[in-house]
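Minutes, methods subgroup
Present: GH (chair), OT, SY

1. OT presented the first of two proteins processed in the latest run. Sequence and structure tokens recorded below as shown on screen.
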Amino acid sequence: MGSRWLKPVERWFKLALIPPAGAAVIRALGRSMRIETRGQEHVDRLYREGKRVIIAFWHARQLMMPLTYRGTLAHILISQHQDGEIVARIVERFGLRAVRGSSTRGGVGALRELIRLGRSGVDLVVTPDGPTGPAHVVKMGVIQLARASNLPIVPLAFGCSKKTLWQLGSLHGPLSVLAGPLPLGAALVGPAGKRCVRPGSQTP
């Protein structure tokens, strides 16, 4: 009996407390670090031309990415896992909007929605190796998305001089660890050019 009402209460506390605390931690870390941006001219040029992009970064590097976005409106793909709701509420505090789904749950519907949004003129954000891995291996989803939406892929990286590894909530497996910076370090962030996918092509 006790566990049946404890779980909803625990979930309520997680959703009510972790998102504002998480966003505050990200902002505090950002203010404490010396962040250098390189390669932003590639993305800025696309924006000046009135184009939109697909921003892609590795799953384990997502923590500080809300601070790096240079556009006006982006929709980010977030899994339907229970921890995904926490992530969605955190990124919404930075002006990003969530599309829920992944290769393991709700993927087809999420891909269709991302294609629709990309064609409507907004940026898209994905982690091409998530959610089940293997880590740092690009899956076909981002290629299909780029081909269908006709948007270039902009690989984005964030590296820091001081970092630690955090376990992601109840997740397990190759993508359950998040690399997070420590305060007072130095960071380097930037896009690595762009990758375009030709209609009908399977590779950039």
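2. SY then presented the second protein from the same run.
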Amino acid sequence: MPARSRPTVAAAEPLSIEITGRTGLAHAAYLKRHLTRAQAILRPALREFSLALVGDRRMAELHEAFMDVPGSTDVLTFELDHDSRGRVTAGEVVVCVPYALREARRRKVPSRNELLLYALHGMLHLCGYDDRTDRDFATMHLREDEILNQLGVGAVFAPTAPPSHSRRPAAPRPQSRKSARRVRRSGASA
């Protein structure tokens, strides 16, 4: 009787991470190391991840162009490619470094951990998480801190965040149909 061979399981493709920017690059190795490990925990279809570290002015430009909201924000996420099942395989996360530094000081956490929180937040958006409802917001931020604990960084979002965290608007700003279409087309998430 011939020996039965085991089915081969394709090894997961490693995540390609590119980090660019004019500010915050001193944290690039730390961010890349932890994001690679976070991807291993999440095991998404994501194969290409670009992290752009930008200043307030550039973030304000992007925030207005893609979300139709004036002013800077902490993080924006862009889906760039999908597989045949509709899962995101490539994406870009834009993090505002000065915003993260201000929040880190205010919340008394290390700046590199605040930057990691924002990058991980974007990665979770690319993995299908959303934070538009109170329930989804709580689920997403709980998952962020679970992953950060698994990475040995410790919770960053939960320990000092006030009930209405500065990154969560008190009331959603109504979107025009035009801006909603633009956001859906661009795949941007805040």
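Chair's summary of item 2: The CA atoms of residues 45 and 85 lie 10 Å apart.
Next meeting: continue with the remaining queue.
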